[in-house]
Amino acid sequence: MFAGSAAGARRAATIYSLVNSCGLLGIEPWAHLKDVLQRITEGADAATLTPRLWKSAARRAPAS
Q1: How is the chain split into domains, by residue range?
Q2: How far lies 61's CA from each of 21, 40, 57, 58, in Å?
Q3: Taking the mean position of all CA atoms in its chain, how far away is CA 35?
Q4: What are the two backbone dihedrals, phi and then psi, of residue 24, each rounded to the nearest 5 degrees?
Q5: Which residues, 6 or more positions from 47, have their beta carbon under 8 angstroms from its beta carbon?
Q6: Is the overall model pTM greater than 0.70, yes or no?
């Protein structure tokens, strides 16, 4: 109803879910989304960039 279409509602629900997952994991949502979108454009597999896996990888990565 408010998303404009059923497809829009599914997309909005996906974004809401990602933002909420970030919050539950203590991740700043904007930092996650910005990094994930950049990695996807570089060819990374989106399935490996969920908030939980992203946080886990960030802990293992050396600080730069």
Answers
A1: 6-59
A2: 21, 18, 6, 5
A3: 8
A4: -65, -30
A5: none
A6: yes
Each residue's pLDDT tens digit, 34-61: 999 999 999 999 889 999 999 998 887 7
By the 8 A CB rule, do 32 and 40 touch? no
Mean pLDDT of 2-24: 90
Sorted by sequence, the CB contacts under 8 Å of residue 49 that are 6+ apart come out as: 36, 39, 40
Which tokens hold the place of 32? 């996650």
Q: Which two tokens stand for residue 21?
A: 């997952």
Structure tokens at 6: 């059923």
